[in-house]
Design goal:
Distance between the termini of chain A: 25 Å
Structural class of chain A: mainly alpha
Number of helices of chain A: 11
Strand content of chain A: under 5%
Order of helices and strands of chain B: EHEEHEEHEEHHEHEEHE
Distance between the termini of chain B: 40 Å
Number of strands of chain A: 2
Oligomer: heterodimer
Largest interface: A-B, 52 and 69 residues
């Protein structure tokens, strides 16, 4: 009986409405995950092309094509998650510029347009190096805010204390570097030197991302009771405890270890395995972080 | 004009008349709410006490829902009310994520965001919100915060030191005030919410929200 279970200073909710379930679910996770790959292949691809030039000539085609595919997955699931998908047009007809959703939608649309021209031009052999380079730099410039803007949306979601824009900006950037480097490693781009660079980018990004997640896990509760209440869902006994650690292990810890061994033994297959695990774990880690603040009662 | 709301929690007896009148007036679907009265029991038998807290949209001066809405479906009216344009809403649920008070829901019938509008349609016609009219003890006080002679302004002046808002740390500057309440009334983390434990039902979570 509840009246015997609590001390006099404690309070128990005895009549209330049902709480809402998860509102932003797996579609939004997929949206963020696909965007990380779609923008990451641009950011990492530009680095590869500037450093290695013709040694990674295949990137000139794989970069826009892969990016176009994943940017469209990102946009498709953004659209599918809307309760009024056809009203998406209102973002262009009635834009509200204080909203990061609006700014992001416009930027992502422009970036997808640039990438479409690049992909089509390369596949049809109608894009010379000079216009390609110009478009590549335009795509690079737009890829940065498109990578980051979701962190601002999460920051504007004022009800969810766990999502802080500064840490989310960092996590979005790291996710893009993980997504980009892992994709090129899976595609087997370049020689040993290229793979070494990609492996380093993957391992360093995964390490930094892991540090921030664990920092929030262990110390995030110190300054805000809502963060403490949210982190409780992934702490010992929390509903998402197992999933959180599966995400951290698959997405960050194992890839770091595999990259170290892969670089030491010059094993492309170990690097590819690290990449696959990193992409799978990235989705899980992001999903847990998206869902847990939504489990908390706000009123 | 800046319209505001005040609830005197020492008067509220938890009859839920406001909740029911809101449901009827605004045709709020089953399972959803624009206004609800939450019961929290404090202490142990025989020294137990029951508190009642009406919870609705705070019509914040710096509303996170208005800021995050990509199409201005959530917008300010000149009288300070934060209103919803259901026809423009794209159903992204950004506002649901942004509202620190959990006051916004996606209407399963219209697939648009919805919340308390202080009965903007009634106010425009010179009437009081439905919940104010329904309250048998006049615990709900509604009026112009810019007018020092209005009931709400006088009430705030008379109860200086006991006027509170929910989550002031969020810097949303709510225009919804409470008098006579404590931490248990206004802070959802100050009370335990036991899964499945409820006076009249065992539905504690809605698995299905909106059109998905």
């Amino acid at each position: 009986m509840v009246e015997h279970a609590h001390a006099a200073t404690q309070a128990v909710v005895t009549l209330d409405v049902a709480l809402p379930g998860i509102v932003w679910g797996w579609m939004i996770t997929l949206n963020m995950w696909a965007k990380s790959i779609g923008t990451g292949v641009i950011l990492v691809g530009v680095y590869l092309l500037k450093k290695y030039g013709d040694r990674v000539a295949s990137v000139k085609t794989s970069m826009p094509v892969v990016s176009f595919i994943f940017l469209n997955i990102f946009l498709l699931f953004t659209l599918l998650d809307l309760h009024h998908p056809f009203r998406m047009l209102n973002i262009f007809l009635h834009p509200h510029w204080t909203s990061a959703i609006t700014v992001g939608a416009w930027l992502a649309t422009i970036l997808t347009g640039i990438i479409f021209v690049m992909a089509a031009g390369r596949l049809l052999h109608k894009l010379d190096d000079e216009p390609f380079n110009r478009l590549m730099w335009a795509a690079f410039i737009f890829a940065i805010p498109v990578t980051l803007y979701t962190a601002t949306i999460l920051g504007e979601a004022a009800a969810r204390e766990l999502w802080q824009t500064p840490t989310e900006l960092f996590q979005m950037a790291m996710a893009a570097f993980i997504g980009g480097s892992a994709t090129y490693l899976i595609l087997g781009v370049g020689d040993q030197n290229v793979k070494r660079d990609l492996g380093i980018v993957l391992a360093v990004s995964a390490s930094l991302s892991l540090i921030v997640y664990l920092g929030e896990y262990y110390f995030g509760a110190m300054k805000a009771e809502e963060v403490a209440a949210t982190i409780a869902f992934v702490k010992e006994g929390g509903a998402y405890h197992t999933m959180f650690w599966v995400g951290q292990t698959l997405g960050y810890i194992l890839p770091i270890v595999l990259v170290i061994f892969g670089l030491r033994t010059k094993s492309s297959s170990l690097l590819a395995l690290a990449s696959v695990l990193a992409l799978a774990g990235l989705w899980i880690a992001k999903h847990v972080w998206l869902v847990i603040p939504q489990l908390m009662n706000l009123s | 004009m800046k319209l505001g709301f005040l609830v005197d929690l020492s008067l509220c007896m938890g009859c839920k008349g406001c909740e029911v009148s809101c449901k009827v007036e605004n045709e709020v679907p089953i399972g959803m709410w624009r206004l609800r009265v939450k019961y929290v029991d404090v202490g142990t038998f025989p020294e137990a006490k029951r508190t009642f807290t009406p919870l609705r949209c705070n019509h914040c001066e710096s509303a996170p829902c208005e800021r995050i809405c990509p199409v201005s479906a959530l917008h300010y009216l000149e009288n300070g009310i934060v209103n919803v344009d259901k026809e423009r809403c794209i159903g992204c649920a950004g506002c649901v994520m942004a509202c620190p008070y959990g006051a916004i829901y996606i209407d399963p019938e219209t697939n648009s965001a919805d919340k308390c509008t202080y009965c903007a349609h009634r106010v425009a016609g010179g009437m009081m919100p439905a919940c104010v009219v329904a309250c048998p003890v006049e615990a709900n006080i509604f009026g112009d915060l810019d007018d020092p002679t209005s009931n709400i302004s006088k009430y705030i002046m008379e109860h200086q030191g006991d006027v509170k808002v929910r989550k002031p740390e969020k810097n949303t500057h709510p225009k919804h005030f409470y008098v006579g309440g404590g931490e248990v009334n206004l802070n959802p983390l100050a009370s335990e919410r036991i899964e499945g434990y409820n006076l009249f039902n065992k539905i504690t979570h809605l698995k299905h929200i909106g059109g998905h």
